[in-house]
């Protein structure tokens, strides 16, 4: 049975109440100082209304907004008494429900996202489930993410689903596939299918390549690994040698241009690109779309919330995957230096020593978490906070 | 259990056999004279390999290629003895299987498309299923499609799923929605939800508007109808008055530009657009993507094979839906005359009288099927063939 709440809303809202809520919405959006403005605040309230109680992380995933933004808006909404925090997550107050039903005119609470495929449109069968289980073991052996080069590891589910999507679209069997950067280890499930003609990985991080090499040896599959800084053109023997590329580049316009352009070198005039990328504010996404279009790629498919990443609550996020088809491709490289988010928007990260609990700063004197050793001798850390440096 | 067929393929293919298949693929693509070339032929063979026996219509849906193209390639592949036609549809011959397994390196036959949501990512719940059932009754009352203005009716499932998607993304409840052309009758399920703040339809076809008005009266819902030729700017009272627009425009670049631009007039500087559009060859889709980008829309989501249409086998096809978000929108209108496909690529359609079986030509002397009356007095016709006029 459907539940309709708030039938009383329409028409019975007082003029001054409407004005009050309108001013409130404006003020929350302004205080939060976010690119998407009122729409983002509306989205957050709608997601809470439909799914309450709900964790901040889940709100971020469902609204596709960055977690720090959601946390900020949530705090402001708490202060305005629109919502309250309970043990089980955020819930709307009576005022919040009034706001949702009388002003935003929400009334229906069900989610229609397919629970079988989680909105991805494809499902794993036994063959791919088996691959996923084998990938999980290896994913645990990954080194610590080097955030200075925007590493952030996709879950084993994510990498396996990517390969399943490639299979489903005819981009796996008999194809030569290059992973342009592969900290997500998507080459692992790809190799385990035994369907591709060739699988190769270029990455700057030797640790990732070594893990892939070890995997190949143990699992008896073939993955070509090439250590390479993508700021430089691809080695000649990789040029015009692939049918398909896959990349999850740094989430900056220059990062995307560089990684996709190296991908184009590998494809030649035509080919398929799987692009995983962050749900960006409209302005930024528009310049990305322009760059993609200029390179000669069409977006033949774009699935939001396809990719999920491992890590602390702070960076837990979700990104989309797009299947691009190119026919008359041309590289378009921007500034090859400022490709990582940390270089565009410097960030300080706070890590907690898992042994003694001491908090360490990373991003100024200590550049990356890998260089961190605690006074207690602890070498394992968990990120607990992230801050942008004001320039 | 997974089935792997063709394990023997890899490595055991003779050099001359490989050359033979390569030449064959080139020659089929060339004979078919299709924009997507070899890739399209590969896609067709892969879909048959995975789903055989399979009807031509299903091949067209799964490859997203136009039905006449698929029919043409199928005929050539038959002539080349790659496939045979059985009562149950197309099947690969022994040579075809060799081609698929040894040359294209296909081996796995399962489809991973989610069978619950059919790849759309969303499902209807009881509330929306109920709406679908009510829409079905009204869809039967539609007039005959006027193909000179590119009418082609989406199924009731399609229009209901569109509205479900709008709901899921937060673009329905409390929103003012304009349908820029609505031969698909998507305004019907939208109105039946009782969730929108306002629903309006502009269309050039009085028959469609009258049906919508009759529907509104009988079902007790409110849909504003405006008869309007979109070649002219929107009436002033529709300008900057909507949050969301939805359109399934003529599948020409000028048609898309015109309909989206009128949509922008309705939205003002920012808003959401649901665009349903045909899977076009890359070159054409690239100019569409450019136009969309120039107008200021980002493609936040693009779901292939979302829309299905009613009609004879000949025009049975599938299109995608894209959710566009605009922030600093500006209209971009091209040639406002050549907006319909028939004006860009003149077509002759052949209709069969359902009473006496006589075949009639439509497109030259007789411009549209509506003007057709058979000598036997028959007034109902079924399209049986379509031909492009060579210019």
From TrEMBL, chains A, B:
<dbReference type="InterPro" id="IPR051720">
    <property type="entry name" value="rRNA_MeTrfase/Polyamine_Synth"/>
</dbReference>
<dbReference type="Pfam" id="PF01861">
    <property type="entry name" value="BpsA_C"/>
</dbReference>
<dbReference type="InterPro" id="IPR029063">
    <property type="entry name" value="SAM-dependent_MTases_sf"/>
</dbReference>
<dbReference type="InterPro" id="IPR014435">
    <property type="entry name" value="BpsA"/>
</dbReference>
<protein>
    <recommendedName>
        <fullName>N(4)-bis(aminopropyl)spermidine synthase C-terminal domain-containing protein</fullName>
    </recommendedName>
</protein>
<dbReference type="InterPro" id="IPR036388">
    <property type="entry name" value="WH-like_DNA-bd_sf"/>
</dbReference>
<dbReference type="GO" id="GO:0006596">
    <property type="term" value="P:polyamine biosynthetic process"/>
</dbReference>
<dbReference type="InterPro" id="IPR036390">
    <property type="entry name" value="WH_DNA-bd_sf"/>
</dbReference>
<dbReference type="GO" id="GO:0016765">
    <property type="term" value="F:transferase activity, transferring alkyl or aryl (other than methyl) groups"/>
</dbReference>
<dbReference type="InterPro" id="IPR002723">
    <property type="entry name" value="BpsA_C"/>
</dbReference>
<feature type="domain" description="N(4)-bis(aminopropyl)spermidine synthase C-terminal">
    <location>
        <begin position="130"/>
        <end position="379"/>
    </location>
</feature>
């Amino acid at each position: 049975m459907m539940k309709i709440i708030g039938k009383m809303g329409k028409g019975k809202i007082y003029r001054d109440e409407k004005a009050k809520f309108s001013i409130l919405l404006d003020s929350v959006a302004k205080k939060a100082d976010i690119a998407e403005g009122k729409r983002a605040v509306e989205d957050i309230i709608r997601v809470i209304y439909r799914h309450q109680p709900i964790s901040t992380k889940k709100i971020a995933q469902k609204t596709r907004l960055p977690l720090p933004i959601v946390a900020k808006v949530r705090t402001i909404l708490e202060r305005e008494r629109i919502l309250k925090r309970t043990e089980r997550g955020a819930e709307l107050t009576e005022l919040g429900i009034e706001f949702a039903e009388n002003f935003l005119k929400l009334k229906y609470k069900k989610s229609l996202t397919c629970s079988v495929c989680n909105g991805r449109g494809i499902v794993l069968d036994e063959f791919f489930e088996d691959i996923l289980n084998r990938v999980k073991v290896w994913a645990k052996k990954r080194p610590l993410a080097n955030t200075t080069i925007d590493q952030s590891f996709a879950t084993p589910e994510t990498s396996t689903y990517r390969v399943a999507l490639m299979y489903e679209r005819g981009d796996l069997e008999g194809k030569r596939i290059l992973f342009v950067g592969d900290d997500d280890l998507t080459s692992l499930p790809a190799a385990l299918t035994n369907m591709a003609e060739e699988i190769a990985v270029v990455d700057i991080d030797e640790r990732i390549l070594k893990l892939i090499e070890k995997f190949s040896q143990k699992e008896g599959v073939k993955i070509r690994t090439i250590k390479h800084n993508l700021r430089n053109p691809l080695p000649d023997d990789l040029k015009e040698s692939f049918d398909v590329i896959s990349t999850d580049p740094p989430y900056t316009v220059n990062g995307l241009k560089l990684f996709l352009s190296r991908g184009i070198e590998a494809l030649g005039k035509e080919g398929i690109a799987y692009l995983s990328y962050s749900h960006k504010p409209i302005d930024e996404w528009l310049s990305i779309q322009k760059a993609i279009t200029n390179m000669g790629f069409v977006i033949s498919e774009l699935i939001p919330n396809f990719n999920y990443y491992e890590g602390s609550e702070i960076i837990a996020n979700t990104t989309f995957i797009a299947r691009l088809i190119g026919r008359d491709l041309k590289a378009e490289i921007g500034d090859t230096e400022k490709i990582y988010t940390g270089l565009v928007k410097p960030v300080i990260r706070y890590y907690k020593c898992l042994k003694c609990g001491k908090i360490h700063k990373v991003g100024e004197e200590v550049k990356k978490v890998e260089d961190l050793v605690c006074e207690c001798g602890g070498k394992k850390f968990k990120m607990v906070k992230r801050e942008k440096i004001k320039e």
